[in-house]
Amino acid sequence: HAATEAGKPTFISLLSIREGEGKTFLAKQIQRRFRQLGNDVLIIRPKNEGYFYHNDWTFVDPETDQEYSLDCTAQFEQYSFVLIEYPGILKSQYPNELLAKSALNLLVCDANRVWREVDKKALQTFQKGTQKKPVLVLNRTRVDDLEDFIGEVPKHRSLIRRKLKRLISKE
Fold this sequence. Notes:
- The protein is α/β, with parallel strands linked by helices.
- Helices cover 30% and strands 20% of the residues.
- The chain is built from five helices and seven strands; from the N terminus they run βαββββαβαβαα.
- It has helices at 23-36, 96-100, 117-129, 143-150, 159-170, and strands spanning 10-15, 41-46, 58-60, 67-69, 81-85, 104-110, 135-139.
- It is globular and about 60 Å long.
């Protein structure tokens, strides 16, 4: 159980510049993995996309349509983690107070999409308005492509492949 305090879950925000970057996919993968580890995980989205107003922070579970309010933390007591999937930054604005509730803000980016000037400016504006810098999650990329940028990525290899890799690395 990874809740921050007894009865208080850890909130994780999933953000993107545009829609369709992979927030839902990532949220479901995190939920699946955390559940495998024995945690209760809830995914919620804003009920009304667009602008948030201080008096309407209503969220909904997309699986059950149950409504939640971030103002009422008692309704989250049964969960270890609450994943909050926000609309794209270009589509919506929301108060920093909402993001401040999260222990972690994940910025999901599609590796197959070209960033334009408007994306860069949206991210800069967003970063000026938030206290917590987001952690970048690069979606839709192949592990082999990542090795060119960050070095070798650990992965399961057959015995033959491991020996071949060691032999090549020694040269």
